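Supplementary Methods. Inverse-folding protocol.

Structures were first reduced to a discrete structure-token string of length 247. This string, shown here, constituted the complete conditioning input.
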């Protein structure tokens, strides 16, 4: 079997006795969530991201320069809410730092609550999402994704950070044999890019075809499944549940 396929298979169907156990496929699922919610926020809430904060910093620069279509306030709300979510997520995972399964469970339950609240707001509010509704949606989603990022940082599964792809794509090229590196790990890293692409594609397709709330429904469904899995994993006591050596 080619190396790429072996890496992909080991990510999708990991060795439960390995250092990260069942965490890789869960991280991929959360990467799909990132694509879904950012498609919703960018296409329906103005030019703003709720998961990828690098984009919001750049959008703030555009807004300061007077470029049309960019809201400084929306970017600030997203950044502040994301930071607050990261704080909540940090507190949630550090309370159970000795067990990665419980870290995942606690963080996902909080994230799912925020994204579900956003979905409810989207359903009870009329479109287009403007004014207070718009900023409420931005805040709730950014809070949830801040929690997710804090959890991903604590769990420290290599190449699966759920939102950041710049370093992942850099690694594919810079670590490749062509660059005299030790190996691109494209089977694993490529899956992360595909997962985010799939989430963004599904979210955008739904919005552009008249189902604007569907991205949030799908995100909540994925999070509910991941939370259920995390609740079961929280009972495990396998080696992967212990904190990574390089967290």
């Amino acid at each position: 079997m080619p190396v790429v396929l072996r890496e992909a298979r080991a990510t999708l169907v990991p060795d439960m006795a390995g250092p990260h156990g069942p965490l890789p496929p869960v991280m991929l699922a959360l990467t799909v969530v990132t694509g879904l919610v950012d498609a919703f926020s960018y296409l329906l809430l103005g030019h703003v991201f709720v998961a990828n904060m690098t984009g919001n910093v750049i959008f703030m620069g555009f807004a300061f320069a007077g470029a049309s279509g960019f809201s400084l306030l929306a970017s600030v709300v997203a950044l502040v809410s994301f930071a607050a979510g990261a704080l909540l997520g940090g507190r949630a995972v550090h309370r159970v730092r000795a067990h990665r399964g419980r870290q995942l469970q606690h963080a996902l339950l909080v994230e799912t609550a925020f994204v579900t609240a956003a979905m409810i707001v989207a359903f009870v509010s009329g479109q287009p999402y403007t004014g207070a509704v718009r900023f409420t949606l931005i805040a709730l989603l950014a809070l949830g994704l801040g929690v997710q990022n804090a959890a991903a940082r604590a769990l420290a599964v290599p190449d699966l950070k759920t939102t950041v792809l710049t370093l992942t794509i850099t690694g594919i090229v810079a670590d490749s044999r062509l660059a005299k590196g030790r190996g691109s790990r494209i089977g694993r890293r490529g899956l992360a890019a595909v997962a985010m692409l799939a989430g963004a594609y599904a979210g955008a397709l739904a919005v552009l075809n008249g189902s604007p709330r569907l991205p949030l429904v799908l995100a909540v469904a994925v999070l509910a499944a991941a939370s259920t899995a995390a609740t079961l994993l929280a009972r495990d006591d396998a080696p992967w549940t212990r904190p990574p050596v390089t967290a």
